């Protein structure tokens, strides 16, 4: 399925820039996968809204980190996360890319839980909120609730399946590093 999707995307890119398949076959079955001339400004408008939303979410993440340490410590204690891991769980709501720079200072448990939460809940307060609010404002609450719930379920599954293995691997790496330095 992944290969098929990539082939269709490649064909759509070729069609968009050259019109090759329309010329050869008379029509293109995936038209318009990309924004056509009629929808181009709408696509740019949506990208602009997403950019504006992200411009606001990252400063909010910083302010949350600086002034909301008590709730973050509560989240951290409940999920057995470090302060950095708790911050990552909040930042992933803006965009998971914002969390990557924190990975160097996270424990294995923090990384696994942030990524598990991020797979389902990433961009809830960023890109996806802007897109949904722009296209279908009545779906904002259901989509946000669904993403939060899916993220919580992913964290619960990760705690039982992935975290123990990640911690074993972290311990194994620490043992190897300890022997090299001794």
TrEMBL record:
InterPro entries the record matches: EutH
Full protein name: Ethanolamine utilization protein EutH
PANTHER family in the cross-refs: ETHANOLAMINE PERMEASE EUTH-RELATED, ETHANOLAMINE UTILIZATION PROTEIN EUTH
Assigned GO CC terms: plasma membrane
Domain of life of the organism encoding this protein: Bacteria
Pfam families: EutH (PF04346)
TM spans (from-to): 7-30, 46-64, 85-103, 139-163
Organism lineage: Bacteria, Pseudomonadati, Pseudomonadota, Gammaproteobacteria, Enterobacterales
Keywords attached to this entry: Membrane, Transmembrane, Transmembrane helix
UniProt source species: Cedecea neteri
GO molecular function: ethanolamine transmembrane transporter activity
């Amino acid at each position: 399925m992944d290969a098929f999707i990539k082939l269709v995307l490649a064909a759509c890119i070729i069609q968009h820039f050259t019109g090759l398949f329309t010329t050869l076959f008379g029509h293109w079955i995936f038209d318009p996968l990309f924004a056509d001339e009629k929808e181009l400004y709408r696509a740019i408008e949506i990208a602009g809204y997403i950019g504006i939303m992200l411009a606001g979410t990252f400063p909010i993440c910083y302010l949350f980190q600086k002034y909301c340490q008590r709730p973050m410590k509560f989240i951290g204690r409940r999920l057995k996360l470090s302060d950095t891991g708790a911050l990552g769980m909040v930042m992933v709501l803006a965009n998971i890319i914002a969390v990557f720079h924190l990975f160097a200072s996270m424990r294995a448990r923090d990384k696994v839980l942030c990524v598990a939460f991020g797979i389902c809940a990433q961009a809830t307060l960023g890109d996806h909120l802007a897109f949904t609010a722009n296209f279908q404002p009545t779906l904002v609450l259901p989509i946000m609730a669904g993403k939060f719930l899916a993220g919580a379920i992913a964290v619960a599954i990760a705690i039982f399946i992935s975290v123990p293995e990640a911690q074993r691997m972290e311990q194994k790496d620490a043992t190897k590093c300890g022997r090299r330095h001794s």
